[in-house]
Design goal:
By secondary structure, this protein is mainly alpha-helical. It is 80% helix and 0% strand. It has one domain: Up-down Bundle (Rhopdopsin 7-helix transmembrane proteins), CATH 1.20.1070. Helix 6 packs across helix 7. The chain is globular and about 65 Å long.
Length: 227
């Protein structure tokens, strides 16, 4: 549950990062240092740990586990736990994801319309500034296309998240009111793990930067061999 919660918060953080990169690309990228990224990632794990404190404390309540056979695993179906996990670990982050991605989509759409209306030839072909203007234009275009591709990749990830993760939270929600079949819970859990395993595949398929970064992490010893 903790890793699932952290994964959801990280998706929201990535969506926010994409949104800021598109809306305020140059300024935001200058501020996005290793230290700032480290602080944000660490904060996500602190929030995740805080979210899990109350459920962990409930494990000390022996009454909820009475009547169970040794070695038998059962989902906690108490109303307090269900509200905590469904609202705090799903609906709030999922709503944030939808809002951010909607803003990203609308911003890209607005920027595309603005680009179509722009009058590009400002300098004459003989002007010494025309070559510089062309370089700036191409760099800006390349940056925008890269951000749009990253936003599209994020859309695939969020779409897969909503489709594969929602069933398990629906099961948790109804488990406090009715008995949910164990097989249904198991199937929902398999979908969650499929989502977790599929995210890196989507990232790698859509982003060459992710493939390079992943290779750098896996083959980190090559950096030491080159020295």
């Amino acid at each position: 549950i903790g890793l699932e919660c952290a994964s959801t918060f990280h998706l929201a953080a990535i969506a926010f990062d994409r949104y800021r990169s598109i809306v305020d690309g140059i300024t935001y990228k200058r501020r996005r240092t290793f230290r700032s990224v480290f602080v944000k990632v660490a904060s996500l794990w602190v929030i995740t740990a805080w979210m899990l404190m109350d459920p962990i404390m409930e494990f000390n309540d022996k009454t909820q586990w009475s009547g169970l056979e040794e070695g038998y695993c059962r989902y906690n179906t108490s109303t307090k736990w269900v509200i905590h996990i469904v609202v705090g670990m799903y609906f709030i982050p999922a709503t944030l994801l939808i809002v951010l991605y909607t803003k990203i989509f609308l911003t890209i759409k607005k920027m595309l319309k603005r680009r179509e209306k722009m009058c590009l030839p400002v300098f004459s072909s003989e002007s010494p500034c025309s070559s510089y203007s062309g370089i700036v234009q191409r760099n800006s275009e390349a940056t925008f296309l890269a951000e749009r591709k990253a936003a599209r990749m994020l859309g695939f990830v969020i779409g897969a998240y909503r489709i594969l993760v929602t069933p398990v939270y629906i099961c948790h929600l109804f488990s406090s009111m009715v008995t949910v079949p164990k097989r249904l819970f198991t199937l929902a859990a398999i979908l969650v793990h499929t989502n977790s395993g599929g995210n890196p595949v989507i990232y790698a398929f859509c982003s060459s930067e992710f493939r390079k970064a992943f290779a750098d992490v896996v083959l980190f010893w090559r950096k030491f061999d080159m020295r």
